[in-house]
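[SOLVED] Need 3D model of a four-part complex

Original post:
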Amino acid sequence: MDLAFTPEEQKFREDVRNWVHANLPPDISQKVHNALRLSRDDMQRWAKILGKKGWLGWGWPTQFGGPGWNAVQKHLFEEECALAGAPRVVPFGPVMVAPVIMAFGNAEQQKRFLPGIASGEVWWSQGYSEPGSGSDLASVKTRAERQGDKYIVNGQKTWTTLGQYGEWIFCLVRTSTEGKPQTGISFLLIDMKSPGVTVRPIVLLDGEAEVNEVWFDNVEVPAENLIGEENKGWTYAKHLLSHERTNIADVNRAKRELERLKRIAKAEGVYDDTRFRDEIAKLEVDVVALEMMVLRVLSAEKSGKNSLDVAGLLKIRGSEIQQRYSELMMLAAGPYSLPLIHEAMEAGWQGDQALGGLWPGGAAHCAPLASTYFNLRKTTIYGGSNEVQRNIVAQTVLG
Amino acid sequence: MDLAFTPEEQKFREDVRNWVHANLPPDISQKVHNALRLSRDDMQRWAKILGKKGWLGWGWPTQFGGPGWNAVQKHLFEEECALAGAPRVVPFGPVMVAPVIMAFGNAEQQKRFLPGIASGEVWWSQGYSEPGSGSDLASVKTRAERQGDKYIVNGQKTWTTLGQYGEWIFCLVRTSTEGKPQTGISFLLIDMKSPGVTVRPIVLLDGEAEVNEVWFDNVEVPAENLIGEENKGWTYAKHLLSHERTNIADVNRAKRELERLKRIAKAEGVYDDTRFRDEIAKLEVDVVALEMMVLRVLSAEKSGKNSLDVAGLLKIRGSEIQQRYSELMMLAAGPYSLPLIHEAMEAGWQGDQALGGLWPGGAAHCAPLASTYFNLRKTTIYGGSNEVQRNIVAQTVLG
Amino acid sequence: MDFDFTDDQEHLRDAVRKWVDKGYSFERRRDIVKAGGFLREAYTELAQLGLAGLYIPEAHDGLGMGPVEGMVVMEELGRGIVLEPLVQTLIAGGVLSGYAPEAVKAAWLPRIASGEALVVLAHQERAARYQLDACAAQATQAGAGWTLSATKSIVPVGDQADAFIVPATVAGKLALFLVERSAAGVSTRGYGTQDGGRAAEVTLKEAPASLITLDGLSALEHAVDIGIAATCAEGVGVMDKTMAITAEYLNTRKQFGVFIGSFQALRHRIADMKMQLELARSMSYYAALKLNAPTEERRRALARAKYQLGVSMRFVGQQAVQLHGGIGVTDEYIVSHYFKRLTQMEMTFGDTLHHLGEVSQRMQDKAGVFA
Amino acid sequence: MDFDFTDDQEHLRDAVRKWVDKGYSFERRRDIVKAGGFLREAYTELAQLGLAGLYIPEAHDGLGMGPVEGMVVMEELGRGIVLEPLVQTLIAGGVLSGYAPEAVKAAWLPRIASGEALVVLAHQERAARYQLDACAAQATQAGAGWTLSATKSIVPVGDQADAFIVPATVAGKLALFLVERSAAGVSTRGYGTQDGGRAAEVTLKEAPASLITLDGLSALEHAVDIGIAATCAEGVGVMDKTMAITAEYLNTRKQFGVFIGSFQALRHRIADMKMQLELARSMSYYAALKLNAPTEERRRALARAKYQLGVSMRFVGQQAVQLHGGIGVTDEYIVSHYFKRLTQMEMTFGDTLHHLGEVSQRMQDKAGVFA
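Solution:
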């Protein structure tokens, strides 16, 4: 048992770190470090830089052009990216649909779709949730009827993150109403430029449009876009979910944000206030404990011994921590987090010149704090709400 | 709307206070103020003093010899007793069985039982819970079979508080197994000196024997001891439960104990420690909020307007506060709460003479702290566990 | 000891509730948010109900009412998350009535009562956080009058109010002044706030000012305590409606084939929310009933109340969103607006940790409501 | 980075677990509690397994093992809530090995390893609370040796241990000494403790003492950190078993006609307990793996660990009792004993608020396990 990474792992980390520092555009990391608004271009620029290096599919095996890293290497890569202020890679292509295509797609599909994902050229979206489905994903209502060599798709998806940018979408669609709800679901890839696809942004409580509704109105989808067998989509989707493990905890981002919280607390004059500082201290322990839990999982994955069934715990704790640091940042600024100044969330904003830049109090770091806090309320809801996660955890203890 | 008590109420409070100060034996209040062990004699001495004054049945109407006080007067009386360090009146006689006898007993029964309760001469116990019944009180298994002018009782009760001192016990017994569980229950008064009654103390986690198991082995009970009608006992028991209202919150004791907590924190040198003091401050707000909630209920009872359905909330919050002050007292003493010295929980204990009285550290106030903390874990379990209370509260909101 | 409302108070409540239900629909509110977060017309409607004169003596054309009436009104406004800041008017009415010279009273109170003049507190400075005695603004005597130089932040509807109540130091001591927005040397920059309302940065450069009182700290503390009591009541109203919205949702929304309100874990959460609401309501009563108590007793009580409200508002707001699931984080659905309002109120007039510090510092040997 | 146990470590775990299961039944434990809270015979059995020599170098007849082995052992002892204080022996082994002069080592370490000598830390003073540098005890040089005058409290099995490790001041600085219980001027008064174990007040009046080190504060801090790491591991063991007992109860006990383990509110409570257990286990690993780090890094890590354990132990203990209902508060049923042990451990080597203070004070700009 050893807390330290092996010399090889440390060397690996250093190589990644050097590369990230050399290749991550400073204007982008500057935005990430200050929670400013990222454009589609920011995200895609970084994705393409990773793609060019062959690291956008950092979890991929070598046979599909990935680096073939083990669990620890993947973690180190993710950590270095997060700490350097890289944007989170939009996961729908490289992390979510790609593994399904690798595992269940045919050679033709693999050849057709994987390169565009690996390079960052094609923006993928996810079509799982539907209005009213919530945590009950198997209640899919969007229908896909086979007509000759096509499927005709009708229905609606929702909560489609960044779907306004999407070029392709992978969907769970209902191809049969017989048997249990899970048995009649298929996994279909749909070109979002197809006639009949409509995307409508959903404005969230922070005023941003991060998610979307996607309508399908008699959309024709070539049957060759079906992954695997008809009516077996649920199996593939579950396979995909089982791939989300430690990254669900997002502990690397939490470390970065905890450091940012300390900077904000200092700037706001509350870092040396016992009461406020204690709250940061508690969060510090929370983050360390979460990181240790993540490392335990990684170690188990690396060695194949003592496998740990703590995905539910990682999700619950990781999301609680995200909410907590955003809450503390907002509380640190207090009244100065209350102005809602949309332009202040753009990089390079210089304050209000009419007031000599004194706005509010000259501290640009205050601008995004409340919005981030509001935005992160989603984390205990999405990806299986924390209530659903508690059901799952209890199941592991009580049966 | 007025926070202040009326001049009449203030006068009433003053009269009660003066009387309590003049009549409460100092050796008893000294024990209460320091959470030392109370003997049967201590409890009964105070009960008889109250009884002589006509105040042991302080909630009773005048027609049965009570003072006929309204809700506010009852509260003021209870508060003055609590703050003065009077022992809590053992409620089974005057608060629990007496109202049932008044409401549902016949004139003969009222004449026979009420005087002994009012005077404090007769010690009553409660026979509701049974092994395994928990919060499901209607699952009564103790049988009472009618044979001529007697009932033959067989079965077992448990968690009978202070049953080791009991002379009479009121029991829920099963007289019929037909229909719903609630319909076959009767309310029976049993002389605990009857042949076949066995009482076995249950040692609790604090090492004390506060509760008991009571066995009934072919106990003969005269049929005249049945209250009201056979098989209607559940109705009477529910009537009784509806009489427990604000006293369930025990806010008067909480006020007294919060003041004790502050004294202990000062003596242990943590009152001026920001972290510890903040915990007391939070509890202070909790106590004030609970007291305000109790006063709201009293006001509503007094005027008959805007009746409040918050009994569940009072139980939950009151019990949480009891647990919290005992926890903070223990934590204030820290390591010095760890010695378990049974003799130190007796009044007048002078420390260990072999060590010149230096034991532990000479602070006798430390001795009962952990035991009290352990003992009060019961408060969120008994009287309908807090989980059951939350079910009830949710019902009031959601239906 | 009596917590019943009088018939007059119940009528007042009904009148305000009726206006909120009929006159301040969510759609109207949404339009006001879009238009900048404040609608003078809506404020005038409140004044026409007499509410702007609630704390102004009848001699100055007000209603001469007290904290309980203030509580009743604010609770109802909270229910409708009304953006127009009546709490500021209660503060102005209370502080000017209590501390200003007769001339200032005569000039301003009737106009405030009628709604003609909207006067707001402009006390927040960048370095002060929630400390009321931290003040960099300077006042200078100029002939018979005064001039003020100051930079004040997050002033409620600061770019549309008619005058400000401004703390500034005179010889190292805090004094309180009244400054008209139209006066020379006053500039403002307005913006929307997180809850949909409006505030502004206010800069004074040797702006002419009327003295309210040289005992500025007492007056400012009183002003903030009036604000706390009103905010507590408003918070109760917001939470009460938030609970109702959430309960209805749980009894309507189905998942896995059943109403989600049938899940015990969610039911217990509702019970915990109800607990926080009733604790908060109890402390809102307490705040109102202690608002006219002697200073130290008042300050201690109001700190306790705001601490409880802070805890309750955060819990109820967060859980309401959580129990709604995805729809709870959308702008379209109403509950997120209640949540944002609750969040902002926690940081108004001192947040929860601040008031914990106040409670802790002001603690006495005695415990309870009457201590 | 590797959290797998070696085969040797797994064998060690198996051996201890076997002894606990077969050799330390709840009935035997109950008898030990009744008899005063400590059984030398049981302690000797632990020593015969080699555990007393765990942290003692092989050169002094110990096993020369490290913190991970200590963790494995303590976790298993925790599972059986073993009263005999092996944590004290780990401290004595670690501190004497690390700080004592060769003569003291040679005289004591082999006897400690064999179980012949039980040496415990006697550092608690009445006014010190959890501050390690607060020490009224005085040491005086007397010829080649030293004498100590001190009053120490809550010394584990203080009336039956063979010697004490005692901090005392020399010229205002903390030094560490070894004092034999049989020495002149030593008196003890033993008593049971809340968890069923045993402790004593120890009074030294010019008692002859051997110097361990003049750098007493470093050694004492190290001693306490060894104790913290061991207590963390023990706490994990206690909680692990507490969870198992509770889960079994929920799956056995019926109410309202169903197993109470089917109620969602209770299931979520179990999930929350599991969370606390796994966070605690993670931090116990962390404590063990940082125990040999440089001082500042070690102290920071151990404070973080004990803070987490404090939070977890309180929650798991209280909830285990709550979920059991009435039977959970009886002496007869086993779970209350696990709860009491968890309670006592929270107050051992610094409680949760104390370690929050330590974490807060030692906070750095960087975050995470490696910071």
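Edit: Chain B touches chain A at residues 274-275, 278 (CB under 8 Å).
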